[in-house]
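Input (structure):
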């Protein structure tokens, strides 16, 4: 799977209709709603603003008045084929006065996103896992420093009889990280749970 390095845009014209393909990296439906509101404000004379959202826990699509299945579905198919995730794909259409028919619309919307994908820099998505460690209070600062050096995020900390830190670690580095932390803290560490995020 891949995600976008940054937003990217492309435009095609078919039978005098303009199709503005746009791809945005997003993390949530709320973020995509804000982006769609901006796009609609930037293009008040557009006849359609069709979109597809693919992100963790929340996805959706909208033909925005085009015949059902002729806009968002072909856009979605391109995103799936390119293995894109955490992405908002938008095509803004300006009417050119000539009807394209269902087949023409399907090709146009798919091509608009396909052409936009060709300009995108794609980054592989690294799967991360949550790990919960319990350490003595005296060892917490050493663990935090090591996390910073290793590029591991401390998501949350609770204080009970020991400090309990919830960490976000790349799956590919998790075993090595755990061994190194165990050695660093001379074994004064307990792993409490391990779940994918």
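Output (sequence):
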């Amino acid at each position: 799977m891949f995600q976008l390095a940054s937003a990217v845009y492309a435009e095609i014209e078919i039978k005098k209709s303009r199709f503005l393909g746009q791809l945005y990296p997003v993390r949530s439906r709320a973020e995509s709603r804000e982006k769609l509101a901006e796009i609609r404000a930037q293009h008040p004379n557009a006849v359609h603003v069709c979109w597809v959202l693919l992100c963790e826990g929340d996805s959706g699509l909208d033909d925005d008045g085009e015949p059902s299945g002729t806009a968002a579905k072909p856009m979605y198919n391109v995103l799936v084929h390119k293995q894109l995730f955490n992405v908002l794909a938008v095509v803004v259409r300006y009417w050119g006065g000539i009807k394209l028919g269902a087949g023409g619309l399907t090709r146009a919307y798919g091509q608009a996103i396909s052409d936009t994908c060709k300009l995108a820099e794609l980054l592989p998505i690294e799967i991360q896992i949550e790990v919960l460690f319990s350490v003595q209070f005296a060892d917490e600062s050493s663990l935090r420093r090591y996390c910073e050096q290793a590029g591991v995020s401390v998501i949350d900390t609770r204080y009970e009889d020991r400090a309990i830190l919830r960490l976000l670690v790349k799956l590919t580095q998790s075993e090595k990280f755990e061994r190194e932390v165990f050695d660093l803290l001379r074994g004064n560490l307990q792993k409490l749970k391990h779940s994918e995020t």
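Notes: Helices lie at 29-42, 72-81, 101-119, 137-150, 174-184. The CA atoms of residues 74 and 110 lie 5 Å apart.
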